[in-house]
Structure formats: structure tokens, C-alpha cells
Amino acid sequence: MILNCVVIDDDPEALNQITSHIKRTPTLQLIGAYTSAREAVRDVRNGHVDVLYLAIQMPELSGIEFARLVPESCRLVFTTAYKEYAFDGIKAGAADYLLKPISFEDFQESYKRVRATFDEYQLQDPIERDRCLVAKVENKFVRIDLDVFSTSRA
After folding, report:
1. pTM of the model
2. How far lies 109's CA from each of 56, 84, 98, 112, in Å?
3. Is the dihedral of CA 72, 61, 35, 38 positive or negative?
4. What digits encode the pLDDT tens for the residues 84-119?
5. Could you give all domains of the chain from N- to C-terminal order, each with its CATH number?
């Protein structure tokens, strides 16, 4: 299975480096590359993005802030020039992080880890994973949160 990727980095050199690594990886397909997080918001939220390579430090919207807008099914890989920011990325839900400059070998190692988490996520039962059901009621779709219901009896 080929995974769709998007790269967001305000540094054009880093953006080109990551996109080059993606193009060298047969099971990744680049569907977007942006130097502005604001420009990428709509495409990432509405498109089918499996892996997002995202710089942590950007001028208008940080990678940490951007991560809150990304669907849970999307795997995040934060990229940073500063080792101390890596922990912030992991706390924000990243599957992995890469320190700049990014060698092809480091990129491939990261991709193996990300691919494993993606495959594991795909194997989960969607009802258990999302903890919800969607039902059509009076011509409208309604989301039913399963955590509201308890299986224990008093």
C-alpha cells in the first residue's frame, strides 16, 4: 500500500530535502509540499493524507498548533533543527521526529517506524479505534459516542 504524504516546512531547503527523500521511497507518494502551514490547513484536513512531515518552528502557525488540526488517522513526523523540541513533538502526538539536516538513512529509519504505527492503526477495529458509531436518523447522520454507555450493571 502506498501512503500519501504532505510536507510543511517554511525552510525551502529543508522542504526540498524531505520531498526528495519521499520521491526516492517507492511506497510513499508526495501529494503536497508547502512553505506555509496556513496554506496547507484545508488540503490536509480535507485530503487523504497518511503521513505528514511537519516543521515544529514556523512563523505563522507552529507545527505543534497545526498538529491539533490533523485527523487522528494521519501519522505525524515532526522535523526540527533543535533536539530540545523533539519531546514537544512527541507530546503533541507525533509518530516520530527527525533532526535537520535529514539524511536519507535517518528518513528511511523513521519511515519504517511510522509505517509500523500506520499498519497497526489500520488493523484496529474501526468501532473500537474511534469509539463511536454513526447512524442515520431522520435523514441525518448522527455520531454516537460509545464511551457514554457503560456495560456494567448496578
Report:
1. 0.77
2. 20, 20, 10, 5
3. positive
4. 887 888 888 889 999 999 999 999 999 999 998 887
5. 3-126 (3.40.50.2300)
